[in-house]
Amino acid sequence: MMELVVEQGVHATPMSQLARESNVAIGTIYHHFNNKKEIIEEIYKMIFKDYGVVLMTNLPEDDFKKQFETIWMNLYNYFITNPLAFKFSEWVGVPPIIGDDVVEQMKPYYYNVRDFFLRGIKEKKLRNIHLRLIVQISYGNVISAVRLKDKGELPMTEKQVQDAIDCSWDAVKYVGE
Amino acid sequence: MMELVVEQGVHATPMSQLARESNVAIGTIYHHFNNKKEIIEEIYKMIFKDYGVVLMTNLPEDDFKKQFETIWMNLYNYFITNPLAFKFSEWVGVPPIIGDDVVEQMKPYYYNVRDFFLRGIKEKKLRNIHLRLIVQISYGNVISAVRLKDKGELPMTEKQVQDAIDCSWDAVKYVGE
Amino acid sequence: MMELVVEQGVHATPMSQLARESNVAIGTIYHHFNNKKEIIEEIYKMIFKDYGVVLMTNLPEDDFKKQFETIWMNLYNYFITNPLAFKFSEWVGVPPIIGDDVVEQMKPYYYNVRDFFLRGIKEKKLRNIHLRLIVQISYGNVISAVRLKDKGELPMTEKQVQDAIDCSWDAVKYVGE
Amino acid sequence: MMELVVEQGVHATPMSQLARESNVAIGTIYHHFNNKKEIIEEIYKMIFKDYGVVLMTNLPEDDFKKQFETIWMNLYNYFITNPLAFKFSEWVGVPPIIGDDVVEQMKPYYYNVRDFFLRGIKEKKLRNIHLRLIVQISYGNVISAVRLKDKGELPMTEKQVQDAIDCSWDAVKYVGE
DNA sequence: CATGAATGAGAATTCATTCAT
DNA sequence: TATGAATGAATTCTCATTCAT
Predict the structure, then answer these.
(1) Does domain A41-172 have CATH number 3.40.50.620?
(2) How many C-beta atoms lie closer than 10 Å to residue B103's C-beta?
(3) A interface mutation test: which of B134, B135, B136 has the most A CBs within 10 A?
(4) Subunit contact D167:C143, Cβ cutoff 8 A
């Protein structure tokens, strides 16, 4: 049921359409969720729970840079292959729809990502700057690439993707004190 | 009249409130604009026309890196001191509200920014990657910093801002073939 | 539901009143129809589907003139006893509210009336003039009578009705080449 | 000024357009008329004052039937050459926009038409039926013809117009007791 | 006399949510 | 548990009219 909802996307679509597209009656939806906000939060949870797993998939051993690049590509590919998840995460950020409590709930799912960055900083693989900043910049760089592809502004050839990764890495890699 | 509109912001606010907040009657607004989309597009134009000028203000002579940093700070400061403009530009991107024609109209205002990046690439100050990509990454990095500040996630001290700039510069600076 | 709508009439009444008078919420109306035009067209269809049946009711055998008079009276009585249908059909004609497609859809319902006139012409009971003209004149004559009655300009006594019928018949009856 | 207004037509056009089309400022219109109803009534007066004159133009001497036909054609031609006046008179009838007092004021302008019909009845050129009825039927017949032409349903060739006139005449001509 | 920006009540329509079946 | 008709507050937009210049 929820799968359907996500597949179809909630974007800014009215509940009525959402119901029609999911082939469930409106009433049925309100059996499972109390209101629209709850649905959105549930999708939010679904998607963001994924992140923690998705991002850390297929990490190569040892080489920190390669690990960074793999994480980068994992996120990039996730968004490219799940454009609805991308749209949704773009959507959801703009007006603060998601309650702070929900955001808080999700934090544990990022612990491994956070730890990756923390380790990078500690081991002098990454710049010694505020964790939140380095994460945001990295995330933002992936988003930049995805947007260019998504809006059709760039084809994002293999080389262009590699260029974007290179930029990202040089942005955050350790450069000495 | 339009100044008021921008000051107050359009957020996702209903026309009625927008009118009340601007101290003009709804009818008055529709005397000047044909529909909501047109208002939004007009604000879009106002803000984005600024960019070309704002970004290139107080550029230091000669040193490309310093110029880049100045542009970076110009945009950062513009958004920090005009949070409504920031909110608005975040808003406006998400569902494609702005007609392609309007976007096209605005391009000339960025020519000087574009030329700055083009020159940087040609003069081997910047990486030799696709213009659109390098611009988007740079822009995205500023936005990342502004967001952290805007959402109160980071205080963005002078050092943190400088860190962000450093990341940005290292992301795009020339690194040899 | 639709019955209510017709009973109450659409005059030029706002949807809101229409809803209130029908004792349904506005939303409910829009649950069944997409917009005002659609409501009007639906009423149009209801009324005009009646015509084909109403007009040909109780036709006497054989005597063409008597048949003509019966049809005339059928329409006259229909409008007199359904003043809302009359008002509605007066309304609806003036600016072309009804889509051509809907008008086209309704044509089959008039086939028997059309055929009656065609037969009359062929059998030299009616003037040999353009079908559309002879129909319009006959229809117009009924409308003239109904209007006089409706606006209270004439009581339309039995004699006056008969006078009107006589005029109509003489207007269209066969008069030799 | 008023000429312009009529030329452009009032149909159901908003005052704002009416002003724009007349190349007069809205304010100016409200200098001359107190409200929209007054404008419409003024146009109504203009057009209907014409009638009395227009209808009785170029009446042939003596032959009553020829006079009837001339009046018929005068009205028909007036509407065909002044489609806006036709539209207007169709419009104006439907919801009772025009105040009864105004209608009353106009009556004197029809006296000559009324007298023509009265004379016809008295002189046994016309059926001895209620004046209002015979006038309405005659008027209605002209309108029927104009409508067919106006809506493009018939080309209204010379023959078709003559057919319509013949119908009209036979509808009202004296037929003995 | 002429102007047109300003007004705001009211119209059409949307959509999250409820509730009887 | 599932349904979807019903709801009505909220939203966008229209248009007759006013009034300061």
Answers:
(1) no
(2) 13
(3) B136
(4) no
